[in-house]
User: Which sequence fits this backbone?
């Protein structure tokens, strides 16, 4: 009985302890519920709770409550998102600014040009015809612009003979050339030299910048002096032409004196002495080219002419380019004359080699250096080369340009003019008739011969015969056409010389 009483006592004690534990757990639950009520945000914050960042912790202290409030306030600054095409928009804005700046610059230049042309400094000794419109001047400059891609004779020869023949010929000529034994480094340096007028070869001597030659633009006073000396006013009034001149350094002048002494001595060895002291002297190179030409060593002669062109081309830096057609060299200055001579000899050699298209481009370059006086007679080459080189349309455009200028001068009562007019040359008159005939093709042959209206080529040929009848017997002999004796004996068909 004692054991059972003890078990029942223990059971009663356990039953007395269970309500105490329940009451303690209830108290703890009440405390937790109160803590949760304290930590719950107000109603306005709960509405934005979907936008606020969620937390994984079950208990929040006062600091976390403050952070939740700060993050949920509507006064927070939003983050700006950059647009995807922001770079494009910036580029367009820069382009607009650049365009606006260019327009302002063009307006300022136009104002200065207008003031420059109408100012008292520009001469007008040739009458009203000396003021040519800007459009006509721009058209003429475009006609004189040189195509750099057609200045390579080897490229033209490849079209006729193929690259293998041209490469083998160039290799054989370079191997037999004088001074071809050079180190690999020197040959590589020479091959890297760039040129538009020539192709520098590995056999050439090493070249430094300019070699004593430089170029500068003529001042307005110098241009006016040139206009007075030539008798046709200032050339600067013709559509913004830019006149330049080459200048010698003191060292180059001293070697020019040695060159003159070598020429006066009459010994070619003296020329080689000058060459050893200054390899890139243009006058000396041209004279050595003539020595090789007299020996009938044409490959060597061509090579030395190319070196003379390369010597002057390195001085043509800055705004002096061949592609604009508006840059001029004053032939009256002796420093510029070697370049004229080098280009002229290049034209003659290209014609001998059959490179008529390249020869035409060099002839256009020679004519564009000084179209007012044409000191080396480039027009006498252009009438033939334009037809042979497939540039007949260019010849017709130049003819119409000068024809319009002549009509404008006659309307103002000025007959003399200020430029060398190709319309006054017999070769150009007959060449234009041939150009028009080539353009017509076989249309004129299919037409009725009894038609009273002649074609444009026939009319051009009639005008050429009326202007230059003395050419008719010469053409008849070339064409093996028999002319009646009374025509050959006619006074108009005889060639009159100044001596007769």
Assistant:
């Amino acid at each position: 009985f004692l054991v059972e009483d003890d078990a029942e006592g223990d059971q009663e004690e356990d039953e007395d302890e269970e309500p105490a534990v329940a009451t303690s757990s209830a108290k703890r639950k009440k405390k937790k519920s109160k803590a949760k009520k304290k930590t719950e945000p107000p109603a306005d914050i709960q509405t934005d709770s979907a936008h606020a960042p969620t937390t994984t912790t079950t208990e929040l202290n006062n600091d976390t409550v403050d952070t939740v409030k700060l993050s949920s306030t509507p006064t927070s600054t939003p983050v700006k998102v950059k647009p995807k095409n922001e770079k494009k928009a910036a580029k367009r804005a820069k382009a607009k600014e650049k365009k606006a700046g260019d327009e302002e610059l063009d307006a300022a230049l136009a104002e200065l040009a207008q003031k420059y042309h109408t100012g008292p400094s520009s001469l007008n000794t040739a009458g009203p015809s000396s003021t040519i419109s800007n459009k006509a001047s721009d058209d003429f400059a475009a006609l004189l612009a040189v195509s750099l891609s057609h200045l390579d004779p080897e490229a033209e020869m490849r079209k006729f003979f193929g690259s293998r023949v041209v490469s083998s010929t160039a290799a054989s000529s370079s191997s037999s050339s004088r001074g071809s034994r050079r180190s690999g480094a020197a040959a590589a340096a020479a091959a890297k030299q760039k040129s538009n007028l020539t192709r520098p070869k590995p056999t050439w001597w090493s070249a430094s910048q300019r070699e004593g030659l430089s170029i500068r633009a003529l001042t307005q006073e110098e241009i006016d002096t040139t206009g007075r000396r030539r008798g046709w006013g200032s050339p600067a009034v013709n559509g913004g032409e830019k006149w330049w001149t080459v200048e010698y350094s003191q060292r180059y002048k001293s070697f020019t004196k040695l060159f003159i002494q070598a020429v006066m001595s009459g010994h070619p060895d003296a020329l080689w002495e000058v060459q050893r002291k200054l390899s890139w002297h243009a006058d000396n190179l041209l004279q050595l080219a003539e020595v090789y030409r007299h020996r009938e060593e044409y490959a060597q002669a061509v090579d030395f002419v190319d070196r003379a062109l390369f010597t002057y081309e390195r001085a043509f830096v800055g705004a002096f380019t061949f592609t604009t057609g508006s840059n001029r060299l004053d032939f009256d200055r002796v420093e510029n004359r070697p370049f004229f001579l080098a280009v002229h000899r290049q034209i003659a050699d290209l014609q001998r080699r059959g490179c008529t298209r390249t020869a035409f481009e060099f002839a256009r370059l020679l004519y564009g250096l000084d179209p007012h006086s044409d000191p080396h007679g480039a027009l006498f080459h252009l009438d033939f080369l334009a037809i042979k080189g497939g540039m007949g349309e260019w010849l017709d455009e130049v003819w119409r340009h000068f024809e319009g200028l002549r009509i404008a001068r006659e309307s103002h009562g000025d007959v003399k003019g200020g430029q060398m007019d190709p319309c006054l040359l017999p070769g150009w008159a007959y060449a234009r008739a041939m150009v028009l005939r080539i353009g017509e093709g076989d249309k004129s042959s299919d037409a009725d011969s009894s038609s009273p209206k002649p074609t444009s080529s026939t009319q051009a040929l009639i005008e050429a015969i009326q202007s230059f009848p003395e050419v008719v017997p010469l053409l008849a002999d070339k064409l093996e056409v028999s002319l009646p004796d009374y025509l050959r004996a006619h006074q108009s068909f005889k060639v009159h010389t100044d001596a007769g």
